[in-house]
Write a structure and sequence with these properties.
Elements (H helix, E strand, L loop, with lengths): L1 H8 L4 E6 L3 E3 L11 E3 L2 E5 L3 H14 L25 E2 L4 E2 L8 H11 L3 E2 L4 E2 H10 L3 E6 L2 H17 L4 E3 L20 H22 L4 E4 L3 H10 L3 H14 L8 E6 L16 H23 L5 E5 L3 H15 L3
C-alpha cells in the first residue's frame, strides 16, 4: 500500500497526495478464515478523468499482484475510487460515488482523517457526518421493496446467516398490510382504510419494542416507515386519504432513522405484470399496473432520499441480495 501511494504521487497529472494512517480491520463478506485486512484512504488533485484515474489504480493493482479469484476474497491490493468532486454517474465499469462507501466503517474511518469535510452527494452528508451516523444511528436496517415475498425471504435468510456468524439480529413482526402496493379493496364490514388506521399504531409499537430489545444486535425491518407513509397517499383518496395520513402521523410522529436503507429494486415480472400472458382478466392487469405505478413512486422516493445511506440491490437476485445485506451489517458493526 505504501509503495502504491508512492507510485500515485509520482504520476503525471497527480498532485497533493494526502494519505491516512493504515488501519487493521477484520474481513467483511467473502469466504471464512481470511486474515486481517489493512485499509487506508488518500485524496489528491488531478487533471485526469475519472475513467483514467480508475485505469491508473487498476494498473497499480496488477503491478502489485492483484488476482481476482472470488468476490470479497483475499487480494494483495484493492484500490477503489470513492469520490471524484461531486460527480454522480453509473456505468458497468465505474459507479460514483462508490455504492457501498457510505456505510462501511473500514472505508469511512480512514477517509474522515483526510477528507472529513468532503460531501457525499447522494446523501448530502459530509464524510464526518456519515461517520457519526454509522456510529450513532439505531442498529436498524430498513429493507424496502415493492416485492413483498422477495423482501421477506431476504430478511429472514440474512438474519439466520448473521446468527450463524455470531451477530444477533431480529426482524419486525409482519402484520396485515406491511407492503407498498396493496390494492385499495373495500370490504362491506371492514374497509381497507379502517384496517390501515388500526394497523399503523401496532406497527409503530412493534418497531419501538424490537429496537428497545435489540441490545447490541441488529433490527432488519421487513417494512420501512416511509413505505407506509407513501401508502397512505397512494392507496386512498379524499376523506380516506386524510384519515390514513392522520393515523400515520399519530403513530410515527418521529420514526426512527435507519442506519441504512436496503432497496430491492423490482422488475415488472416480479409484479406479475406480463401483458402477453394468457388466461387473466382485466382486473388482474389493473392490479399489476397499480403495483407498477406504486413501485415507480417508491423508486422516486428512494431516489430523492437524503440523510441516510441507501444500498440498491435487485429483488430478482435474492441470494446476491442476502450476501450484500449480511456484508453491509458486518461492515457497520464495530469490531
Amino acid at each position: 500500500m505504501r509503495a502504491a501511494l508512492q507510485q500515485l504521487a509520482q504520476q503525471p497529472g497527480v498532485t497533493q497526495v494526502v494519505a491516512s494512517r493504515l488501519h487493521q480491520t477484520a474481513p467483511v463478506g467473502g469466504p471464512a478464515g481470511q486474515a486481517v485486512y489493512v485499509n487506508a484512504a488518500a485524496r489528491f488533485e488531478t487533471d485526469l478523468s475519472p475513467q483514467a484515474v480508475l485505469a491508473l489504480l487498476q494498473s497499480f493493482e496488477q503491478q502489485f499482484g492483484r488476482a481476482r479469484r472470488e468476490t470479497w476474497g483475499p487480494r494483495t491490493l484493492d484500490l477503489d475510487l470513492l469520490l471524484y468532486d461531486l460527480q454522480q454517474w453509473a456505468t458497468p465499469q465505474l459507479v460514483l460515488p462508490h455504492p457501498r462507501m457510505a456505510f462501511r466503517r473500514f472505508v469511512l474511518e480512514p477517509a474522515v482523517e483526510i477528507a472529513g469535510d468532503w460531501l457525499h452527494p447522494p446523501t448530502q452528508m459530509t464524510l464526518s457526518q456519515l461517520w457519526t451516523h454509522v456510529n450513532s444511528a439505531p442498529r436498524y436496517v430498513a429493507v424496502a421493496s415493492a416485492c413483498w415475498f422477495a423482501k421477506q425471504y431476504v430478511v429472514q435468510q440474512a438474519i439466520a446467516a448473521l446468527h450463524v456468524g455470531g451477530l444477533a439480529a431480529k426482524a419486525t413482526p409482519t402484520r396485515g398490510i406491511t407492503v407498498l402496493g396493496a390494492p385499495p379493496i373495500e370490504d362491506a364490514e371492514h374497509s381497507f382504510v379502517e384496517h390501515y388506521c388500526e394497523l399503523v399504531p401496532r406497527l409503530a409499537s412493534d418497531l419501538q419494542q424490537v429496537l428497545a430489545s435489540a441490545g447490541d444486535g441488529w433490527l432488519l425491518g421487513s417494512y420501512w416507515t416511509d413505505e407506509l407513509k407513501l401508502g397512505a397517499r397512494l392507496w386512498f383518496a379524499g376523506a380516506a386519504r386524510e384519515a390514513a395520513e392522520q393515523a400515520y402521523q399519530a403513530a410515527f410522529a418521529e420514526p426512527p432513522a435507519p442506519r441504512l436503507v436496503v432497496y430491492l429494486q423490482t422488475p415488472d415480472d416480479l409484479l406479475l405484470f406480463d401483458p402477453n400472458a394468457p388466461g387473466h382478466d382485466e382486473r388482474y392487469y389493473d392490479q399489476a399496473r397499480r403495483l407498477a405505478a406504486q413501485r415507480d413512486e417508491l423508486e422516486r422516493h428512494v431516489q430523492s432520499l437524503r440523510g441516510v445511506p441507501v444500498l440498491r440491490l435487485s429483488a430478482a437476485a435474492p441470494e446476491a441480495a442476502i450476501r450484500e445485506l449480511i456484508a453491509a451489517v458486518q461492515a457497520m458493526t464495530p469490531q
